[in-house]
Design goal:
heterodimer, A: mainly beta, 6-stranded mixed beta sheet, 4-stranded antiparallel beta sheet, 12 strands, about 0% helix, B: mainly beta
Amino acid sequence: AQSVTQLGSHVSVSEGALVLLRCNYSSSVPPYLFWYVQYPNQGLQLLLKYTTGATLVKGINGFEAEFKKSETSFHLTKPSAHMSDAAEYFCAVSARSGNTGKLIFGQGTTLQVKP
Amino acid sequence: GAVVSQHPSWVICKSGTSVKIECRSLDFQATTMFWYRQFPKQSLMLMATSNEGSKATYEQGVEKDKFLINHASLTLSTLTVTSAHPEDSSFYICSARVGTGATQYFGPGTRLLVL
């Protein structure tokens, strides 16, 4: 069975500092990988995804993530945090086989950006 | 593109009443829609997968008679919480998949409060 682990339920950075949100997955076959952001009382917005091809994926708002098969990881980074980046971030996976489209979410990481 | 709407955004109801939540894909046809439930400070929990023209597939532990899902068209799925009770109070989020693609696009969510 697939699972997703986000290390650190709460990450705090200073404005302008590097953002690193960690995500590891467990799956017999590398799944599709996603990062979503959720602002208070809102739905989820897709930041970026990895399905195939280049393992370094660039997303919106300056975020990027790298798929590392050997480490079963898909960590999210941003070189310089902005106050508007403060939100809840979810890593999610979807199985390649079966094509059900079902997403399995990690527990979420709250990003706090300090001025 | 790929916009999903939900209505209503907020609903307060008395215990024992039924509440219907609509999920619409505004600019694409969605053969598959998903319904999630999210408790405060927690991740999303998949409730059911809704396929146009067929019965929904419910996740283990989700009462199908309590959470009625209808996907009558390629742009509309509805979730009806029947005989709602205070423990049903939650944030309900729908998502839609474009064709058989891996990506889901999320609605803004519906906050349900049962008194």
